[in-house]
Amino acid sequence: MKQKKSASILKKFLLFNLTVFSVLGLFTIIYLEAIQPNLVKERTINHKVIISNTTDNFERLSIDYSKEGIRTFLLSARFLFQSLDRVQFYDLSGNLIGDTNILDLDQSVFSRSEFIIEETLDGESITPEIQEKREEEEKDNVKIIILNQYVDEPITLAETIKNNFFVSTLSKVKIDNKDIGFIVVSEQANDIVIAVKERKAFIIRTMIAVAIVILIFSMFLNKYILKPIGLLVKFSDAIKKKSNQNIDIKKIFARDDEIGKLTLSIDEMTKDLQQRTNRAETFSNDLAHEIRNPLASLKSASELLDKTTKKIESEKLLKIINHDVERIERLITDYSQMLKDEASLSREKMNKVNLIEIINSVVEDFKLDLINQNKQIEILVVDKINSKSGHHIFGISNRLEQVIANLLDNSISFSQNNQTIEITLEETSNNVLMSIKDEGPGFSETSPQKIFKRFYSNRPKSFGKHSGLGLNIVKNIVELHKGTIAASNRLNTKGAQVEVLLPKYS
Length: 506
What we know:
Elements: H1 9-61, H2 67-76, E1 86-90, E2 96-99, H3 128-149, E3 155-161, E4 164-175, E5 178-188, H4 190-240, H5 250-253, H6 258-307, H7 311-345, E6 351-354, H8 355-372, E7 377-383, E8 392-395, H9 397-413, E9 419-427, E10 431-437, H10 470-480, E11 484-489, E12 496-503
């Protein structure tokens, strides 16, 4: 099955930000489109208040809705329109009957500015001819609206004239619930356009700044996080595929951060897994070899047993068969136990332990066993460490007990009655040295370190009781504790010795 190609974190990160940007951009467009209508609406509300006040004053003052009456009203109630640029009155037919622009009055009372606007925002001059023409066009437009489009509700008109933005409100004038005409109030609202432009510019600048920040962060993320992680992935894949590809991750080791620690941890874990894999492969091959020999012997014995008729020969063959079965059973049992031990070793937690207390506990158990077996073997414990702190190491108590027990069992199996086994504990600057010495025949091998190999055994008389895994397990446990183990023959005397060097607790 073809593995699906996955997207990198950087691509996902950029895609996520692009999506967020798109959504924010959509909402921004909607927001910007709504700014101007909302601001215009605010002006329209103010216009409606002015129109309402104007209608109230018409009723209160009993104004005649005619050219002369409107002129008189404008003279007496000019204060109502001080926030506006222009006010127009139309009759029901759409004819203009009053206009502050053509009223023979000071225009400053109808305008927020002190002077009549004579230039557009871009500086273009407005001549009287242009102004007159524009006013005629406005009259015609208002008349069309009154006659064709107006219903009962006020109408808001927003338009740009020669680069100037105007907001106007057209509404009916009612007195005593009777329609008498129309009023149009207008004001220049360039501030609305400016406000919209400023908000647009601010949003654009903000989005550009955010985009630059995200880009810089993406570059940082890619260089300092994603590339090292990608290198670790390639490194792991190369190990998984047993590739010869040389991937250098030493530079990442030097980093004093989480990535560096992660890299170091992965490297250590990888090396440990490689060692475990190599050990498993070697052990599987050794186990197959060790089982093959007793199986061949078992097969031959069973074939001969089927053919022989003599009782003595049959008994000999049965002993051989039982011996081989015991051997195979022991191999399988010890193999299974060893695998369990190695798995549990990786999970067990190390603590501060007192080595002399562990030694004394194991020795007492063995002394009781020797008494029960009527073996005259003496076990001595010689403590040459003066300080209490020197007895402490960083380790797993039950595993250290296993080490001492296996070494003692090995020494006892080669010792005769009335012989002595000595366990000596010494201290160096950084380590604790434990030596186990016996008075047996010593090692016949030219290289005593062979005894720590898997399935190695030089005990032919008890072949079925020993699989040759005990001392190999001891070696693995010692190495787990960052220690070393060595075997040798004793100098100037008969016997063998095994030395275990373990780091002191610090």
